[in-house]
Amino acid sequence: MSITDQIQKVRSEFSSDLEKLSSDNSVLDKIRIKYLGRKGLVSALFVHMGTVSNEERPKMGQALNALKKDIESEIDAAISSSSDSKNQKLLDVDYTLPGDPINRGSIHPLTLVMEEIKSIFNRLGFSIAYGPEIDSDFYNFEALNIPKHHPARDMQDTFYITDNILLRTHTSDTQIHFMENNNPPVRIIAPGRVYRNEDVSVRSYCLFHQIEGLYVDKKVTFAELKGTLDYFARELFGQNVKTRFRPSYFPFTEPSAEMDVSCIFCKGGGCGICKKTGWLEILGCGMVDPEVYKSVDYDPQKWSGFAFGMGIERMAMLKYGVQDIRLFYSGDVRFLRQF
Ligand code: PHE
To answer: Can you tell me which atom of ligand 1 is nearest the CA of 306?
Structure first.
């Protein structure tokens, strides 16, 4: 086949390649390499230059260069028209249409209340301590003066992992962990999750949150306990709230009490939420029982103090008027967005 015929053949092959191709630039690049690459079809033709006669060589050179130029410019044109078509697609977008919604999260109401309670006690000089959620019988019961078979164990239905390991039923375990590792004076609050094997209902859930408080120093009095918790209640629920202390029983405090606040819904007048009493129970407290000091090697002659514990869910339900505890765990954004 003469060189002229070969040039013709390459031209027509190129035309049909170009016709078939999509507007895809990567395909165009492949075509460029096929014809103009170092081992491409056009370069291969240049090799023949050596085989033609001296008279024919300039004509041949011109013909080959023309072929090369034509292919180059056609590929360039194809590339620019294909990007034109992409630009056209961009112009087709309707920028006046509403955008996709961005769903923002919110801070969980339990976190909000927890943070607020922490900050109230921080202002009173309490620091924060954490204890394990999976704990041993010793820390959850024994060291808190609740020996095996003590009826107080029935107050809290426990999830046991083994005979000795359990999910803590209250944050009071952290009192023991902290006193074991620190010398008095102690001024801590211990927030965290606790577990109880109770039927799930509007008022109780198998897990919930508590904040424990522990204050140990020399000559601490019940008046200090009352003053601290009264200040706390007024900071959290408003300055007009009244408190009262009713005698109660906990194995790890003596004497023990429960603190009520005047009903924040009816202002003490009596309503459905306070069961017409005008009062809402919010926490348990008392002076640390000397038996507890013994299990952590504190001298009960030298040290005294008070402890208290409250449920965060209950606080949040009262503060925000939430009627069903299960809502906190539902993950329902319609509920969560309201805080
Ligand atoms: N741990 C008790 C409970 O869960 C609350 C409490 C804590 C009472 C500290 C007195 C002192 O019910």
So the answer is: 11
How many angstroms is it from 253 CA to the middle of ligand 1? 9
Q: Which residue ranges in the chain fall short of pLDDT 50?
A: none
Cα 17 to Cα 31, 95, 205, 335, distances in angstroms: 8, 38, 72, 62
Q: Which CATH architecture has domain 109-336?
A: 2-Layer Sandwich (3.30)
Of 74, 85, 83, nearest to 17 by C-alpha is 74
- pLDDT > 70: percent of the chain: 96
Measured between alpha carbons, how far is 178 from 167 in angstroms, rounded to an integer? 18
Query: Which residue, judged by its Cα, is nearest atom 5 of ligand 1?
Result: 309
Measured from the CB, is residue 285 less than 6 Å from ligand 1? yes
- pLDDT at residue number 26: 75
Distance 309 CA to ligand 1 centre (A): 4
Helix axis angle for 56-91 and 25-36, nearest 10°, is 170
**Is residue 161 within 8 Å of residue 134, measured between CB atoms?**
yes
Is the distance from the beta carbon of residue 170 to the nearest atom of ligand 1 less than 6 Å?
yes
List all residues 6 or more positions away from 173 whose beta carbon is below 8 Å from its beta carbon: 131, 132, 135, 139, 140, 144
Nearest CA to ligand 1 atom 4: 170
Which is the closest atom of ligand 1 to the Cα of 170? Answer: 4
For the chain, domain boundaries: 3-91, 109-336
HSE-up (13 A, CA, CB side) for residue 105: 4
Distance (Å, rounded) from C-alpha 95 to C-alpha 108? 35
The response to whether residue 209 sits with its C-beta less than 6 Å from ligand 1 reads no
For residue 267, what are the contacts with CB-CB under 8 A and spacing of at least 6? 240
Distance from the CA of 67 to the center of ligand 1, in angstroms? 93
pLDDT of residue 191: 97
Q: What is the pLDDT of residue 304?
A: 97
pLDDT at 76: 82
Q: Best of 252, 289, 312 to mutate for ligand 1, by most ligand atoms within 8 A of CB?
A: 252
Residue 53 in tokens: 């006669």
| Ligand 1 centroid – CA 310 distance (Å) | 7
